[in-house]
Amino acid sequence: MEKTGCVSTSPTLIKHGPKDSFPLPHIDRLVESTAGNKLLTFMDAFSGYNQIMMDPEDQEKTSFITDRGTYCYKVMPFGLKNAGATYQRLVNKMFHEHLGKTMEVYIDDMLVKSLKKEDHIKHLEECFEILNQYQMKLNPAKCTFGVPSGEFLGYIVTKRGIEANPNQINAFLNMPSPKNFKEVQRLTGRIAALNRFISRSTDKSLPFYQILKGNRFLWDEKCEEAFGQLKAYLTTPPVLSKPEVDEKLYLYVSLSKHAVSGVLVREDRGEQKPIYYISKSITDPETRYTMMEKLALAVVTSARKLRPYFQSHPIEILTNQPLRTILHSPNQSGRLAKWAVELSEYDIEYKSRVSMKAQVLADFLTELPVLGTPEQPENQTWKLYVDGSSSKQGSGVGIKLESPTSKILEQSFRLLFNASNNEAEYEALIAGLRLAQGVGAEEVVAYCDSQLVVNQFNGDYEAKDLRMEAYLEVVKGLEQQRVNVASPKSSCHPLNGGNRKKHNKEPDVLPETIIETEPLVEDDHSEPELEPNEHPEPEPRVFHEIDQIPAKDWGADWREPIKRYIVTGELPKNKWQARKMRIVSAKFCLSKDTLYKRGVSDPYLLCIFGPEVEIVVREVHEGLCGSHASGRAMAFKIKRMGYYWPTMITDCVKFAQRCKRCQLHAPLIHQPSELFSSISAPYPFMRWSMDIIGPLHRSTRGAQYLLVLTDYFSKWIEAEAYASIKDSAVNTFIWKNIICRHGVPYEIVTDNGPQFISHEFEAFCSEWGIKVSYSTPRYPQGNGQAEAANKTILSNLKKRLSHLKGGWYDELQPILWAYRTTPRRPTRETPFSLVYGMEAVVPAELNVPGLRRTEAPLNEEENSAMLDDSLDTINERRDQALIRIQNYQQAAARYYNSKVKSRPFFVGDYVLRRVFDNKKEEGAGKLGINWEGPYIVTEVVRNGVYRLKDLKGSPVQRPWNVINLKKFYV
Question: Could you tell me which residues belong to the region Disordered (predicted)?
């Protein structure tokens, strides 16, 4: 047949025609759905597009010119803008019952798959029946039937998994070294086609990309070496696995100087198998990110590239860095806050790394570039810089450990107890020495800002304070342990002048920074357990406070040395103690073997010791003339009575502190004791707060209570009035007003009301998969969203009612409508607009018509387009509202945290619990006790929340907040 040249007249039609938005299937999903089957059949349609007839009205639009005349297509030609989408819509309609089960189709590429060999013929019959029904023809030359593996969409799919295309591999392996820019571009293009199979591909291909960025072509030894290493890697490319439905997947990330990389893996019979490798080069602005920001960038990049996996699977990010704490910190802003919002839509957990169970993951053993410490030569020195800081908001510690090869490991954390500056410095030194032990450092030089700590360690100063002595023993114990185990030397040196500022600049900032962040999980001072070739887990650590100083042991009589000096002139052998004795004894005199102290404003004071002290203190504090005064007031009173001993203020303070009556009647604590903690939700109707208002004045319809639920994101309120509220009414309300209107929520936060802790309510929530979180008893701030909503509803009810208080029932719905159409301060949007994407029409617009009432109804098409635009941009408005919520919470946290005085408790501590009005002794009135107990702390649920038991061992039913607890001194 003679071929005839033709000239198409349709380029403008192809380029400017309306685009068909029908989506093509995701290639990765199709390939993974195909892998793992025992038998496969690959089919290709014969001139696939030409089997679809053109609409007679559109045939002339496909006309083309030849030397014999002008012709047009009766069938759909290749090259049309929407040809692929049209064909995909056709095959989806044809095989819709089999797609994802026994067939996969991508435009004209069809595949039949079978998990069992015996089912394959049946699956082929079903496929051919459909082909016959629609008269679709196949190309036999491109069909392959009943094979265990084959090429599909550029990949090799087998029962084992997904393999790289051998043609692509061979094209790369047979490629000679590039000689110009064009060949380098061809090389990087072939690498890009294999990126899914190449671990840390950007790092391996970095020299090639640097050539393309330069002005001249230079193929040097570095490029040739990288080229050879890539070829060696691709001779045995990894086989990628396919995830199962709802299976938990794991993400490893790794950083380098020029790229962030990640690998998504799954566990199969104890072995970790890769699913997808990703890698991205770091732009110039990103090179200036902090290390934690780069690590967060690696996670965000992985989530964007692997979005289908993150949306359909729970993801566990394995990292030894405090990434979760940094992303979830209320003090974060800027890019970290935006990334935290972006990641909040996924089901992500952060866990510490364990040993990797696959050789193909070897590139991800090193998470951070600064942690890649090579094997240490013997007798090389590690440098340790430590600093502690104490402020009104709490205490913090910063550590910087530098290896012999100048690699740096940094840590910072908060202390969960009040510490002085010197105690914080000791905690920093202890933490640093333990960290050095964990990484196997054999010789350490420690630099500390505190001259007191350094000189006490070196023996230049004496540790007279019992707490400093206890800390020094811990440090000496660590140092001695290191000598015994592996180290011939461990020293601590001060830094002075400019050197100290130069070396301790970063650790000096770290504790002040960490004080402002949320408190972290308590640690137990246990030694790190390391696996071979694995770094110590660099999670922030919070150490226990040194044990309480034991009760005072009176020991030797303090008066005897002074008496001996006055009588015989005997002095201590130490010259400094002898000098002190001469100075001190001048203030004492002896009369008939009784020692007196000369007072400055009082007469001679009788010097007493031991049991005499206890008798005087007890009588002054709780005797007939005792007033249970505070420690210092009691000490001054005893002094005015004419008694003295050297530690009288300290002893009086401790005695008053341990007095049970004083503790039970102590004033209530109103100052916040824990840092601000907020709850938020990433999208509407995910998390609700629930509470009951009442009893109110009985309404005209007999109602006395309101059941109120508030959405954490949009601030939308659902409320209903009841005469009485039982658990069955709560279940009905949630079914009718929440589930049927807004969908099944993820979580409901409520208090400990009997309706909410009943078995019926818990069973109802469990049936619907709703998580129920309870606030601690007698702590309404724990359910702050509900309290804020209750306050608004009650305020509006009061303003609407006059003397007829029973009419509040009829005012409830108007109040809810007004609330939903009023912008809320945290979001700066109305709840109605965040839910529906547009503002509601309110009565004011009926009385004074605006544009929506006058112009919009006249132009239905424009009005419809504007409504569509509002719906298209609703997600952006919600994202902006979420950022405003977080900024609002951060501002609230800064104000709240400025007033916090930390009062942490630990397991085994004795505490008193606040006595509330309904629990006070009957008839006691204002003379009743303010605290009851003592109780014993059995568990730290989270910061500021504790489980208790009484002295008989019976557990208290619910955990209690620290604001309702007070330390009990035994």
Answer: 486-540
Q: Are residues 192 and 329 in the same domain?
A: yes
Q: How far apart are CA 895 and CA 336, in angstroms?
A: 22
HSE (CB half, 13 Å, CA atoms) of 600? 0
Task: Please report which residue ranges of 734-807 form alpha helices under DSSP H.
Answer: 740-742, 759-767, 784-800
Distance of CA 328 to the CA centre of its chain: 4
Distance CA 684, CA 882 (A): 10
Question: In whole angstroms, what is the distance from residue 539 CA to residue 320 CA?
Answer: 6
Q: What is the DSSP string of 434-449?
A: HHHHHTT-SEEEEEES
Q: Are residues 133 and 190 in the same domain?
A: no
DSSP 8-class letter at 656: H
DSSP state of 542: B
Domain of residue 54 covers 6-155
In a domain, 754, yes or no: yes
Establish if 530 belongs to a structural domain: no
Give the length of the chain. Answer: 970
Which residues are CB-neighbours of 406 under 8 A, at least 6 positions away?
none
Same domain, 145 and 21: yes
Is 898 part of a structural domain of the chain? no
Which residue intervals of 72-220 are DSSP H helices?
83-94, 120-134, 166-173, 181-193, 201-204, 206-213
444 pairs with which residues across the strands?
382, 490
Residues 131 and 176 placed together within one structural domain of the fold: no
- Label residue 947 left, alpha or beta by phi (over 0 means left) and psi (-120 to 50 means alpha): beta
What mean pLDDT comes out for the span 927-942?
Answer: 87
Q: Given pLDDT bands bounded at 50, 70 and 90, which one contains residue 151?
A: confident
Structurally, how many domains does the chain consist of?
6
**Residue 365: pLDDT band with limits 50, 70, 90:** low
Distance from the Cα of residue 127 to its chain's centroid: 49
Tokens of 945: 């929340």
Helix (H) or strand (E) holding 877: helix 874-897
3-class SS at 908? coil
CA–CA dist 967, 970 (Å, integer): 10
Who's near 491: CB < 8 A, 6+ residues apart?
A: 444, 445, 446
**pLDDT at residue 340 above 70?**
yes
Asked whether the beta carbons of 469 and 463 are under 8 A apart, the reply is: yes
For 549-606, the pLDDT digits (tens) are 344 556 788 888 888 888 888 888 888 888 888 888 888 888 888 898 887 776 788 9
Clarify whether residues 146 and 170 are in a common domain. no
Answer with the one of 102, 132, 155 that is the final residue of a domain: 155
d(CA 537, CA 545): 22
CATH assignment at residue 106: 3.30.70.270
DSSP three-state, residue 539:
coil
- C-alpha 506: how far from chain center: 24
Is residue 542 situated within a structural domain?
Answer: no
| Cα–Cα dist 116/99, whole Å | 17
- Across 244-324, the runs of DSSP E, i.e. the strands, are 249-255, 259-268, 271-281, 315-318
Assign residue 432 the CATH number of its domain: 3.30.420.10
Instruction: Report residue 916: phi and psi, to 5°.
Output: -95, 165
Q: The tokens of 785 are what? A: 């969203």
Q: Which two tokens stand for residue 519?
A: 């408190």
Considering the domain architecture, whether residues 107 and 215 belong to the same structural domain is answered as no
